[in-house]
Every structure is written in C-alpha cells, then in structure tokens.
Amino acid sequence: MTATASPSQAPVTPAPLGGPELPQKRQLVTAIPGPRSIELHARKTAAVARGVGVTLPIYVQAAGGGVVRDIDGNTLIDLGSGIAVTGVGNSAPAVVAAVTEQVNQFTHTCFTITGYEGYVEVAELLNDLTPGNHEKRSALFNSGAEAVENAIKIARHFTGKQAIVAFDHAYHGRTNLTMALTAKSMPYKSGFGPFAPEVYRAPLSYPYRDGGLSGAEAARRAISQIEKQIGASNLAALIIEPIQGEGGFIVPAPGFLGALADWASANGVVFIADEVQTGFARTGALFASEHEGLIPDLIVTAKGIAGGLPLSAVTGRAEIMDAAHVGGLGGTYGGNPIACAAAIATIQRYQNDGLIERARQIEAVLREELTALALDDQRVGEIRGRGAMLAVELVDPATKEPDAALTSRVATGAHADGVIVLTCGTYGNVIRFLPPLTISDELLRDGIAVLRKVLASS
C-alpha cells in the first residue's frame, strides 16, 4: 500500500489488522493540513466544544509502526504516540485480534455487577510486574486522572488523614481533584476553580534550574517545607511522577525520589508514584521507579497499558488497597472487558517482543542526534529524559531564560514538514519525544533532521 491518494480520491482503506503494513516513510502529497482535513476541521469547529483543542489539525485514517496517515494521503512520522499511549504501535495485530475476540463474546457487564476473567488477569499481571515483592492488590479504572483520584481516596481511607502533597511542575489530570494536584494553570486549571481542598505543593528537584542542588539537598528542602507547613501527622500521601511529564520531562537528581520515599515510610505517609506516562517500557524499564530502586506504596498506571484503549489502574500494598470498604471503589466502565483484553495482549508484547530494550535503543539514537543538534545550536539548553521519553529545553542562549515562542515555531514547522512532535513544560519551552517503540531508526533520524532544519530557520 502507498499513501498517494489525491485530495479528490476516496481515502485509502487501511491494511487488515491495522497499520503495520503502512509504508514506513514520511511522505507529503498535500500541504499540512490538507483539504480534506481542513474540511473536517471546519466540521469539528461547528460540532465540538471549543475547549477540546486539536494541536495538529489533520484527521487520521490509519496508523502503525512509526507513522500516521491522514485522510489526504499524507504520511507523517509519529513522535508522540498519542501522548505515550501506543507504545506497542498503533493497531498492533495481537491487540486487534484480542479485542476482536472479546467483542464477539461480550462488550460489557460491569465488573462490580458480574465479574469476568480479563479484569482479574490484568490485576494479576500488574501485581506481579510492578516494583516490589510484597503482597499487592489492583483496581481498574478508565483514565489516568480517574486512577489518581482513586489512589488519593485509598490513601486517605487507609491513613485516616486528609492532606496530600504534590510537587512543582506536576501534572496529574483535569478532573477537579487532579487539577488541584496539577501545577500548571493554563490551559489546565485557569477559570475552573475552586479546586479540591487539602492539597499542598512542595519544590521538585529540577537539576537544570535549581542551582545545582543534589538529590539529597533538594529532598531536604522539600521535606523541611512539608514538615513546617503541613506536618506528617496530617499528611495522607505524597504523589509524584518519577519523571515529570507535562511539566517538562524533568528527571530529578539521583537520590531525590528515594529520600522522599524513605521519609514517607518513616512517617506513615503513603508514597504514590504516578506512572501514567512513564509506565510500560517507556523509559527503558517496565516502570520508571525501577531506575531509582523505588518500591512505591501505590503506583498509578494508564496510557501505555492497553494499546490505545481506555484503561487505568491503581496497584499497591495489599493492606492499603484493601482498606476501602466493599463498594467504595469501582465504576460502570472501570476495567471494561474490551480494554482488559487489549491490556493483556499489550503487556505480553512488552514482555515478549523486546520493547524494553527497544526503548533503550531509541534513547541511544535520539541522544546521538539531539547531542549533535545541541552542539550546533546553543538554544538547546538541555537534553533530558530516559528511554523513549526524551526532551529538549529551548532557551535564550545568553540568559537561559525559557523560549516558548521559539518552541512553538519549531513545533509548528515540524508539523508542516510531516513530523508529529509535542510541546510541554511549565514555561512552554520543551519539545518532547514519545515515539512508539515500534518505530524504526530511519524514521527517528529523519524526524530529527526535520527538527534540525526547522530550528535552523527559526
């Protein structure tokens, strides 16, 4: 199959079992966006609430491997994975087959009414694979934000305490409680308050911008603030992303996370690792907590868990997870059978297809290309991240001040040239790379070549 349809032709039918048969190369046959996408975007504007934005207004017909093909026949390099969701690739054949089989059996019963094996099997896999050898339990939900809310509910019920600490630059979701946990106001929080109470914020370790503090020093700073302003006796939980996601792919200095976890354990505070974006092979380990030897009390997962279907989970110590009374957790669609079937097939792909090692290989390719880029352009302030979760922070080379305007121009230029990249960061000056783990080295290098060209002309 080739992506050569003209705007006047009907869209090409996707390959059976999804996109792996798509040609794995960038190919543009119209401007981006093309005429069909422009037409559909006009319909979107008329039908969809304005608050639901579309970063790159192309409309997708098929996707797979490391590319996305739009309805105009353009094939773009995918360096976003739907925000770290399609780690096993889009329309991975094993996932499609598992979902098809489940749809043919039944689509829904509500697990809290009548159970089914898929939910139990996903919980067993999570209990086995998440860090730590202690006895665990899991509960399944629909989205990352929903799972974060339930982790907070569980921690509060277990401890009998109410206060929660999140960190600078955090992103935990868009629901009322998770907006309170999230640090960045625009676009996530502005105008949507008042927010849930008893949520406090502590300083993060941000090596590029916190004056060279070691992990231990940054942890002491955070703990001192927590003890003075909140008090361990009032604190139910700390929640933190092992690598910040929307906040800018910030990797805390070594020892920071471990010191926080040790303090929490010593003070009866539940340590929650939000691995919604970092989980499932994304960072070159099955979970990012493994890089620091962390064993969280509770771990929140979503995004990469089910190959693109809506599923999330809270997994943790049995005594904490079992604290809530029967009926206190659940939801109509939580752990729905179709998503569970997808998750089982997806998790098997991470385990059996070498995708953890592939994330490390992707890091090696991206670091090589981005390091060469940084040597040529001093506006690249820092390259950071792990595995297939890397980012560049763009700055004024003289002052190191964040350059959000440059970041926006570079992302827009990359989109126009057929490369899907995402921006992030509290200051809006970070370009993040989250390619599917099925992408080829050739596509990675082509994508960064486009970025280099756009940056040079910006």
UniProtKB/TrEMBL annotation:
<dbReference type="GO" id="GO:0047589">
    <property type="term" value="F:5-aminovalerate transaminase activity"/>
</dbReference>
<dbReference type="InterPro" id="IPR015424">
    <property type="entry name" value="PyrdxlP-dep_Trfase"/>
</dbReference>
<keyword id="KW-0663">Pyridoxal phosphate</keyword>
<dbReference type="GO" id="GO:0047298">
    <property type="term" value="F:(S)-3-amino-2-methylpropionate transaminase activity"/>
</dbReference>
<dbReference type="InterPro" id="IPR005814">
    <property type="entry name" value="Aminotrans_3"/>
</dbReference>
<dbReference type="InterPro" id="IPR015421">
    <property type="entry name" value="PyrdxlP-dep_Trfase_major"/>
</dbReference>
<dbReference type="InterPro" id="IPR015422">
    <property type="entry name" value="PyrdxlP-dep_Trfase_small"/>
</dbReference>
<dbReference type="GO" id="GO:0030170">
    <property type="term" value="F:pyridoxal phosphate binding"/>
</dbReference>
<dbReference type="InterPro" id="IPR050103">
    <property type="entry name" value="Class-III_PLP-dep_AT"/>
</dbReference>
<keyword id="KW-0032">Aminotransferase</keyword>
<comment type="pathway">
    <text>Amino-acid degradation; 4-aminobutanoate degradation.</text>
</comment>
<feature type="region of interest" description="Disordered">
    <location>
        <begin position="1"/>
        <end position="23"/>
    </location>
</feature>
<dbReference type="GO" id="GO:0009448">
    <property type="term" value="P:gamma-aminobutyric acid metabolic process"/>
</dbReference>
<keyword id="KW-0808">Transferase</keyword>
<comment type="similarity">
    <text>Belongs to the class-III pyridoxal-phosphate-dependent aminotransferase family.</text>
</comment>
<feature type="compositionally biased region" description="Polar residues">
    <location>
        <begin position="1"/>
        <end position="11"/>
    </location>
</feature>
<protein>
    <recommendedName>
        <fullName>4-aminobutyrate aminotransferase</fullName>
        <ecNumber>2.6.1.19</ecNumber>
        <ecNumber>2.6.1.22</ecNumber>
    </recommendedName>
</protein>
<dbReference type="Pfam" id="PF00202">
    <property type="entry name" value="Aminotran_3"/>
</dbReference>
<dbReference type="GO" id="GO:0034386">
    <property type="term" value="F:4-aminobutyrate:2-oxoglutarate transaminase activity"/>
</dbReference>
<dbReference type="InterPro" id="IPR049704">
    <property type="entry name" value="Aminotrans_3_PPA_site"/>
</dbReference>
<dbReference type="GO" id="GO:0042802">
    <property type="term" value="F:identical protein binding"/>
</dbReference>
<dbReference type="InterPro" id="IPR004632">
    <property type="entry name" value="4NH2But_aminotransferase_bac"/>
</dbReference>
